[in-house]
Design goal:
The protein is mainly α. The chain has eight helices and no strands.
Length: about 240
């Protein structure tokens, strides 16, 4: 849900920036980037609080196993604490994409993912001087990975400036594009959540199988989604 809303409004930011750059209206493009970035940060903070509050009841819809629920709560509390970092990372991603700097997004995402992969065993099992944190270690590794992605964006933003600057003002256009994009991303998650609730009535194994399938299914549309990411700023710029 947090990703759906953050990415959805990121798409709005992306399209708005590209449109204004194409129209040679740099000040409005700066405003779109700045306001969009701020909106996403506030939204992610609100969503973090909501998700932390509803998690116990939400988890009980899918499992009666207190051990599973305990693990999930211990994991989610740490992961949700990094919700704002997710917002920063995804907002920067859409801003860089809007000006054609796709490789920066790729490098930033890879840096975060590789950091996560390396830190997982170190923090879960306590390798060397790292503490053995178990499920909390997995969550912390995820959060640190997301923070690394943001750090890469910030460094490149300062060292190799982009045509758009984050300062402070173009709300209507961001929302008109962002809300439909958000719904497109959120509806599949809601569908899976509803299906999980049904399957949990039979067995936790059914829920696990659906989770594995859903992960594999994403590979079916990753290529098309990548092409869309490249098309969007081009269309927006030329339309502007």
């Amino acid at each position: 849900l947090i990703n759906a809303i953050t990415i959805g409004f990121g798409v709005g930011i992306n399209a708005t920036i590209a449109f204004y750059l194409g129209a040679q209206r740099k000040e409005q493009a700066d405003r779109a980037a700045s306001v969009g970035f701020f909106i996403n940060a506030v939204q992610s903070l609100i969503l973090m609080i909501i998700c932390l509050l509803v998690m116990p009841g939400f988890l009980r819809l899918y499992s009666k196993d207190t051990g599973v629920i305990d693990y999930a709560l211990r994991y989610s509390r740490i992961v949700f604490a990094f919700a704002v970092m997710i917002s920063f990372s995804l907002s920067f991603e859409k801003i860089f994409q809007a000006v054609g700097r796709m490789k920066v997004s790729m490098v930033s995402l890879m840096a975060g993912c590789i950091s996560n992969i390396i830190l997982d065993p170190l923090l879960i099992f306590g390798v060397g001087s790292f503490p053995a944190m178990g499920i909390e270690g997995a969550a912390l590794a995820t959060g640190i990975g997301q923070t690394v992605s943001v750090a890469v964006y910030l460094i490149i933003y300062v060292v190799r400036p982009i045509p758009v600057r984050i300062t402070r003002k173009a709300l209507s256009l961001i929302y008109s594009v962002g809300i439909p994009a958000t719904l497109n991303l959120a509806v599949p998650s809601l569908t899976i959540s509803a299906l999980n609730a049904v399957l949990a009535g039979f067995s936790d194994v059914y829920v696990l199988v659906l989770g594995v399938y859903y992960k594999l299914q994403t590979f079916l549309y990753l290529t098309a989604n990548g092409i869309v990411q490249g098309i969007r700023p081009l269309v927006g710029y030329n339309y502007g």
